[in-house]
Specification:
about 475 residues, single chain, Beta-Lactamase, 4 domains, extended, five-stranded mixed beta sheet, alpha/beta, phosphoprotein, Heat Shock Protein 90, Histidine kinase, Sig_transdc_resp-reg_receiver, about 20% strand, binds adenosine-5'-triphosphate, five-stranded parallel beta sheet, 13 helices, binds magnesium ion
């Protein structure tokens, strides 16, 4: 018995548990439990143990039957599962808050837009308005990221110059580093456009910078570089996943600890971390990897222990981008106008006022209602409505997609434009692909609304 006692005891399991074990077994019953133990090589493992007494004819215990099973892997899986369930709950919570918050920001941004256009260019107040607006826009990109996180589905991407994003994040990146780390950037002029979701790209940059920081506890250099690069068949040799073509390359280098060779294949795995439990979740690189995949790009890592690490991300060049940027850069003054009648539906009254004000200034006639039922009533009574502009998520019986369907039932050929703070969110519920594709994201700017309304009136057909 003493022998077993030694055999089973490890410093990682409380003594009380062993007391329990022997008490149970000596009473003639079997005992089942889990121990945390150490292998000879020093690694820890979990073991499920069953101890059952074996007795002779007289009922005296002569032997013990001990069955042990290594359950380390099972316990790890369980803890991963718990973690991802926790993320899911956090996600739902964040999504709920972000949705309301997004509407409030919509009201703020919309009103600032209207104020800006009312106040003369040279007014000193312009400057204040611009600052307020840029803060509100930042808030809206933050809520969008929260919404994105809660949905775990990629938000729409658009063509961007990543140099601009890197510059705009410089401050944040610098502040997240320690004083002993210098931060250098080397950005190529004339960088090609790439198509991606800005928020995701920012997350990637921050994740990689934080990893670099953690790898340089004693200080060092963080270098961010961009350049255009043409990948041909020769360069992709040995890497079947990478298509030859034009790419924008972004390299993030540090002069830190480096990554041991045997870990190189593991670092992108979700939950793989070498950091303390409360320091790292091991999700950083997993998120980076999935973003790069979504953007049809490619990521590689070079690392030398004791020297440093370079992550290189290749993002495919976006060709249609140039024309689209030209479009967006056109001055606001030439917003497209119209005289048609627009039915505006939103359960947030302030938001209908913003849309109404923008559209009336552009020459449109508007009717505002605050719910789907009212909207359908107006469509029955009023043959003059040319376009239905509706929120997707509304209190009441019908959501925007359902309203759109009912509306085209009443008025075939009615033009429809929907708006929502959630993009992609409706995918698993009652989305209607036809309108989801053309959704305008809240909060929207006057330029966007003017363009999208005109576009829908001229090209969109609600009756396809
Ligand atoms: N620049 C780097 N230098 C050295 N090791 C790195 C570097 N980047 C990542 N690693 C290694 O890869 C592991 C996984 O990185 P990842 O970003 O996925 O998770 P984490 O940083 O540990 O946790 P989290 O990002 O969730 O806070 C890290 O724990 C570290 O061991
Ligand atoms: Mg990390």
């Amino acid at each position: 018995m003493g022998q077993y006692n030694r055999l089973l005891r490890t410093e990682y399991t409380a003594g009380k548990e062993y007391g329990d074990l022997w008490e149970t077994v000596n009473a003639g019953k079997y005992w089942r439990g889990e121990f945390h133990s150490k292998h000879k090589n020093g690694s820890l493992y979990w073991e499920s143990t069953l101890v059952s007494p074996i007795t002779d004819k007289d009922g005296t215990i002569t032997h013990f039957l001990v069955v042990m099973e290594d359950i380390t892997e099972r316990r790890q899986l369980e803890s991963h599962l718990r973690r991802s369930q926790k993320m899911e709950v956090v996600g739902e919570l964040a999504g709920g808050i972000a949705h309301d918050f997004n509407n409030l920001l919509g009201i703020i941004i919309g009103n600032l837009d209207l104020m800006k256009r009312k106040i003369s260019e040279d007014s000193k107040i312009q400057n204040n308005l611009e600052k307020a607006q840029s803060a509100a826009l930042r808030g809206s990109s933050l809520t969008r990221r929260l919404l994105n996180f809660s949905q775990q589905s990629p938000e729409a991407s658009s063509p961007v110059n990543i140099n601009k994003i890197i510059v705009s994040l410089e401050d944040l990146v610098s502040r997240s580093l320690t004083g002993k780390i210098t931060h250098e950037t080397s950005l190529a002029g004339d960088l090609w456009m790439v198509e991606l979701n800005t928020g995701d790209f920012e997350d990637m940059l921050i994740n990689l910078s934080l990893n670099a920081r953690d790898a340089m506890p004693d200080g060092g250099r963080l270098i961010i570089e961009t350049r255009n690069t043409v990948i041909d068949h020769i360069t992709t040799m040995g890497d079947e996943e990478m298509e030859p073509g034009d790419y924008v390359e972004i390299a993030i280098s540090d002069t830190g600890s480096g990554i041991p060779k045997n870990l190189a294949t593991k670092i992108f795995d979700p939950f793989f971390t070498t950091k303390d439990k409360d320091k790292g979740t091991g999700l950083g690189l997993a998120m980076v990897y999935s973003f790069v995949q979504r953007s049809k790009g490619h990521i590689s890592v070079q690392s030398e222990e004791g020297i440093g690490t370079t992550f290189r991300i290749y993002l495919p060049r976006s060709l249609t981008m140039a024309q689209r940027m030209e479009e967006l850069a056109k001055p606001d003054i030439s917003l497209p106008r119209g005289t048609e009648t627009i039915l505006i539906v939103d359960d947030e009254e302030e938001l209908t006022i913003i849309a109404k004000t923008i559209l009336e200034e552009l020459g449109y006639k508007t009717i505002c209602v605050y719910g789907a039922d009212q909207a359908l009533q107006i469509l029955e009574d009023n043959p003059g409505v040319d376009l239905l502009f509706s929120d997707v998520i509304m209190a009441g019986s019908l959501n925007g997609f359902e309203l759109a369907r009912a509306a085209t039932g009443i008025r075939p050929g009615l033009k429809i434009l929907l708006t929502s703070g959630f993009t992609g969110q409706m995918q698993n519920s009652k989305a209607d692909e036809q309108w989801e594709k053309t959704l305008i994201t809240k909060p929207y700017r006057d330029v966007e609304l003017a363009k999208r309304i005109r576009d829908t009136l001229d090209n969109g057909d609600g009756n396809e």
